[in-house]
Design brief:
Layout (H helix, E strand, L loop, with lengths): L1 H17 L10 E16 L4 E14 L4 E17 L5 H16 L10 E19 L5 E18 L4 H10 L5 E17 L4 E12 L10 E18 L5
Antiparallel strand pairs: 1-2, 1-8, 2-3, 3-4, 4-5, 5-6, 6-7, 7-8
């Protein structure tokens, strides 16, 4: 995870440092349309859920030099460990009582703690505005509100008889799937390779609470993304400041 974070930051720093002279002049114009596709990681530290090998895509229309509107989609998968401390207090109490009974009957070791391996897949969908800072000819920085919807599917893999019983109560179908909204902010930067191609690095942080029927708390989720972008449909910047 740390490598991905450093990669995004490094990509932005190198893009500014490599071209110090050309980056001083303001961009003379900008493209009307742009699209992006890149590698993504979605990380929810509170759950210990790190979804890697993800994909991130964006498409937008630049209506002003400083303002654009577009859509955003990402998908990633990973794994986590479901433990009782993630559950509501009442559910924790029920599971702990049942666990104590199993231990008392000698069906579980005395130091047993519930920990269910769980696979998860997350998709995000968003649409909205983005602010751009085009002071440098080769580098554009941007900032946006992150508002949208998250779809998550979790598949627990019980490893013993007690876990089978608990999973049967929490996810009778053998999996859980949920939609929820999210809010937060995001931003990053893009280095222009030429008029039509660039390299973009960005990060978003959003708050969300899927599976609120079994998870006690919401969480902050981070998304890191790096990849190429394309631009077309030139617009004269001096006419649309």
């Amino acid at each position: 995870m740390r490598i991905v974070r450093l990669s995004a930051v490094t990509a932005l720093a190198v893009s500014v440092w490599l071209f110090p002279s050309s980056a001083r002049a303001q961009q003379p114009d900008y493209s009307r349309y742009d699209a992006y596709a890149g590698f993504a990681v979605i990380d929810s530290p509170a759950l210990g859920l790190n979804e890697h090998n993800g994909f991130h895509a964006q498409a937008g229309i630049n209506s002003r030099r400083w303002l654009s509107f577009g859509g955003d989609y990402s998908v990633a998968s990973g794994s986590e460990i479901l433990t009782t401390n993630l559950l509501p207090a009442a559910t924790q109490a029920q599971i702990n009582a049942a666990q104590a009974q199993y231990i008392g009957l000698g069906l579980l070791p005395a130091n047993y703690h519930l920990a269910v391996p769980t696979d998860a897949g997350t998709q995000t969908f968003a649409f909205g505005p983005q602010l751009a800072f085009r002071h440098y000819s080769r580098v554009t920085f941007f900032l946006r509100p992150s508002l949208g919807a998250l779809r998550e599917r979790a598949v627990p893999h019980p490893a013993d008889a007690f876990q089978v019983v608990i999973v049967g109560q929490l996810a009778p179908a053998g999996f859980k799937r949920d939609w929820t909204g999210f809010y937060g902010a995001g931003g990053g930067g893009e280095f222009a390779v030429n008029r039509h191609f660039g390299l973009r690095a960005q990060m978003d942080i959003v708050y969300n609470h899927p599976f609120n029927d079994i998870l006690a708390n919401g969480r902050w989720t981070f998304r890191y993304s790096v990849g190429p972008s394309i631009h077309w449909g030139s617009t004269a910047g001096k006419q649309r400041k």
